[in-house]
Amino acid sequence: MKFNKIYLALLGSILPVSSVFAGGLDRSGQSISAFLQPGNYAEAGISILDPKVRSSKLAVDDMAEDYYFPSAAIKVQATDQISLGLLYDQPYGADSLYPNGNPVFSANGEATKVEVETHNLTALIGYQPTENWNFYAGPVYQTVQGTVSLRGLAYGGASKLGSYDINLKEDEAYGWLAGFAYQIPEIALKTAVTYRSEIKHELDTTETFGFGAIQRPNALTEVVTPQSVNIDLQSGIAKNTLAFANIRWVHWDQFAVTPTFLKTASGNNLIDYSDDQWSANIGVGHKFSEQWSGTAAVGYDSGAGNPVTTLGPTEGYWSLGLGAQYSPAANYFIAGGVKYLWLGDAIAQTGGKPVGQFENNYALAYGMKIGYRF
Question: Which domain range does residue 296 map to?
């Protein structure tokens, strides 16, 4: 049972929507699969998520905004034993906006909302002492910024935190990545273990209260994006067919965002999580012809604890995804994927007190990727 190396590399990267909604603020899944492709390789992709997060008890029809995030990578095999790579993604984020007019989450014509945006640029160098082994490491450059507005009775109304705003100005910081991979190309066996360090940020922060009446500028808020481990597995199981799996752990259980004024006023964190996140994506891929391949995969995410913050009231998910890839020539391809996610019910809380349950949530994810060998 022998496999063409190029076919294997393409089939292993079909689904560009493998991790678009996960525990905590996790988005991209921080894959390095592009760096493990044979030869010289470049890719660019985009993923789009359309979630619906609601609460019948709180009369919230949908509080989760649609969002998209791009990714890109380039890998160069400089010598037989040295490879270089540069990866871009947006690993963490949040986009939520509650419906206006609901007194639980809005006041004075404004509604509770959150926007968190991150960017990662990872540089990698790999050493391949043999055809089977690859050891790699490199620095990670990361930026983080965010804005949050709390409105309504869920936060105590205007006399407490129901008129609170925070602006976390963009900050840049550095971390690192290290891992190893082992493969047997003849039978399509490949495994990789990748560790990413936590990255500590100190963001210039402006907090306002009373619909802008009181302003507390020039403070610093510490945000530590969590350490994580990815395990990627792949193996041929029949002619033109392989099985693959990704397992991911993210250390969320000590994550907290604690602005100075909000902590003083309420004794609580703005965002925190109680559990680590575990997720898995397992599936099969099949080559139908020289031009067409496809995948099917199921996914699970544990979430990062329950009860959860009102800024992201879901607990994990189950998912089903399908992908297809068209290769007009041996050196490039176009891939697309779609995924349906059953988002877990969760109890939303503020200040340690339950506000209400969010249930019957779901999301649709779409993605596209273009890959090129040179």
Answer: 5-373
